């Protein structure tokens, strides 16, 4: 009996360890590692449960699993009932394994449902800015921006930082761009210039959704601009007849910009997301926007 108690305690400890490990892995967003480790831990748990269930399953009298002993001198109806349920009896070993598996799966689901997104902080002390970004995003080098991160699964969802050249212009405040509405027009114009295409039949539709200003906890003024841009193209640009040139939507994206001034330079944090996923990612993207700061460079 002591051996049984020890093994049961080991099982409880193992389940708690599994819970802690799974929650930690969810925090670092290592999904594939979670899957592999989950399979390994489940196999280990079953290996420990088997001896325990085998020990518990050794009866003192000959009985089928979960069947009550039958005495001839009392309650003859029990005999017929036990005979009818004999076919549905489940061995204790399998029952305990099923219970263990259900418990672990429920713990994993609860951890995945309750865990909030994890953010990491990027600090560029040399250029003078910082922001937070989703922990599972990856950095892409050579993208043309000062820094560039993107979602590894939704490639059109990304962020970047652009910095003006101190030799071309000297900014004292973000208000040098004018009010937020004027800054929004300049941001949209810059986007459209960058997306200009030489292909035949390409058409862009754009719209400024919102412009605003805020003073962050560092005491600096920031502008926020939100725009939508759609790109249309013909499926057959060289067709002679108009009916053969069918216009189709190429992409539909939301662009979020945060503008700040420090070190006589204009800093712009850019966020991009497809419209069909923006509603799901909006909270995370706005947290990134709120975290953007421009800092004085130490000389």
List the helices and strands and how they pair.
Layout: H1 2-27, H2 31-56, H3 77-85, H4 92-114, E1 119-124, E2 129-134, E3 138-139, E4 147-150, E5 158-163, H5 180-194, E6 203-215, E7 221-234, E8 247-262, E9 265-274, H6 275-291, E10 293-294
Antiparallel strand pairs: 1-2, 2-10, 3-4, 4-5, 5-9, 6-7, 7-8, 8-9
User: What would the average pLDDT be, to the nearest integer?
Assistant: 77
Instruction: Report the sheet with the most strands, covering strand number, pairing sense and barrel closure.
Output: 7 strands, antiparallel
Find the count of extended strands (DSSP E, 2+ residues).
Answer: 10
List segments where confidence is low: pLDDT < 50 over at least 5 consecutive residues.
Answer: 23-36, 59-82, 84-90, 110-114
What is the global morphology? Answer: globular
Helix content: 25-40%
Strand content: 25-35%
N-to-C series of helices and strands: HHHHEEEEEHEEEEHE
Side-by-side strand order of the widest sheet: 3-4-5-9-8-7-6
Transmembrane segments: 33-57
Domain PsbP C-terminal: 119-294
GO molecular function: calcium ion binding
Keywords: Membrane, Transmembrane, Transmembrane helix
Concise account of the structure shown:
The protein is 39% helix and 26% strand. The protein has 299 residues and is of the alpha+beta class.
